[in-house]
Amino acid sequence: MSSPQEDCARDLLEVVPLVTRSIRTELRQHRTQELSVPQFRTLLFLRHKPGTSLIDIANHLGLTPPSTSKMVDGLVSRDLLTRHICENDRRRIAIKLTEKGDKSLDFAIEATIQSLTKRISTFSPERIETLSCALQILREAFPETEISICNKPLQKSF
Amino acid sequence: MSSPQEDCARDLLEVVPLVTRSIRTELRQHRTQELSVPQFRTLLFLRHKPGTSLIDIANHLGLTPPSTSKMVDGLVSRDLLTRHICENDRRRIAIKLTEKGDKSLDFAIEATIQSLTKRISTFSPERIETLSCALQILREAFPETEISICNKPLQKSF
DNA sequence: TATTGTTATACTCTATAACTATA
DNA sequence: TATAGTTATAGAGTATAACAATA
User: Fold this and answer.
1) How many CA within 13 A on the CB side of residue A7?
2) Which range has highest mean pLDDT (B12-16, B25-29, B65-69)?
3) How many CB atoms lie within 10 A of CB B115?
4) Domains, chain B, ranges and CATH?
5) Chain A interface mutation, best of B1, B2, B5, B29, highest count of A Cβ atoms under 10 Å
6) How far does the CA of A137 sit from the C1' of C2, in Å?
7) What is d(CA A121, CA B141) in angstroms, rounded to the nearest whole number?
């Protein structure tokens, strides 16, 4: 026997991977600015929490510190992030977006949003409204992060 | 300036990765039966198209044939799939779920659905209804595959 | 000659374990 | 002794290129 909740969960399991694939493809497509999903999420997180430590990023992404360290390495060498020792606790590093990182993030966000917008552009206002409501509901059900891509930096420096 | 479509796309980009993470974690959690998302999708595809060739699976997943071959290798060695040469075209292989593969797939589907159901179990019937509608809309917008996890095999053999 | 699948090789992303520096 | 971060190493998952078998 299945409940409406279960039917809905089944639909989630079917539909969500399709949307994810589309997002991943779009993010990875932009040649020099190419980002993986975790790289993208890191830049986004740093826009909202500039100066964050490695551990905080690792926790946010659900990755181990070594994996996160390596990923940050790559982003630093691409000049998208900077890493500086915190003076009040010299074990920690303060990680920030560079200007280039900030631009790459904007670029990735805009390109991906345009691509997603195209997918839903033919739908009626009512259907768009239904979608929007549903996404707010899902946001409540999966509250692991509260980061928004709408708003620019909360604080520009730490 | 942003349109309702664009706002909705922005929400998609924020919310969908959260749900994906939850699905991936659940699929990967079941010790001996652990599956990656592409492995899961392969088993699901084979339930609906038993006897499918390697190329067809590769196209379905959006992977290259070598990557797909290697993944199928792994699933065969775990006794979840069988591989046989097609007699009418000896270049092709017919890939099928084993009984164990079939059970693993059921197990993965059920565990994941239960986990997702739990996430949305506290919502009102109206909100569940909104979610369900939205998922049908998304299904139209991202129609890359028509595979359903609700229905058991269309044909049990090829 | 074209198609199906595999092998060889390499790169990215992830992990665990062991390490350094600092608190 | 505990914490933040890195290095070393290994495994999964992906790709491209080159190959074998078949059509």
Assistant:
1) 12
2) B65-69
3) 17
4) 4-115 (1.10.10.10)
5) B5
6) 51
7) 9
DSSP letter at B144 equals S
DSSP B52: B
Minimum-distance nucleotide, CA of A64 to C1': C15
Q: What is the pLDDT of residue B50?
A: 94
Residues within 8 A of A (CB atoms), B 74-93 only: none
The predicted pLDDT at position B68 comes to 96
Question: Residue A146 pLDDT more than 70?
Answer: no
- Listed as ranges, the nucleotides of chain D within 7 A of a protein C-beta are 3-9, 12-18, 21-23
pLDDT value of position A25: 81
A118, two tokens: 């195209």
Q: Under an 8 A CB cutoff, do B135 and A136 touch?
A: no
What per-residue confidence (pLDDT) applies to B145?
55
B29 bridge partner residues: none
Name the percent of chain B lying above pLDDT 70: 87
| Partner B contacted by A37 (CB < 8 A) | yes
Residue B70 pLDDT exceeds 60: yes
- Span CA (B64) to C1' (D14), Å: 9
What stretches of A121-155 show up as alpha helix (H) in DSSP? 125-141
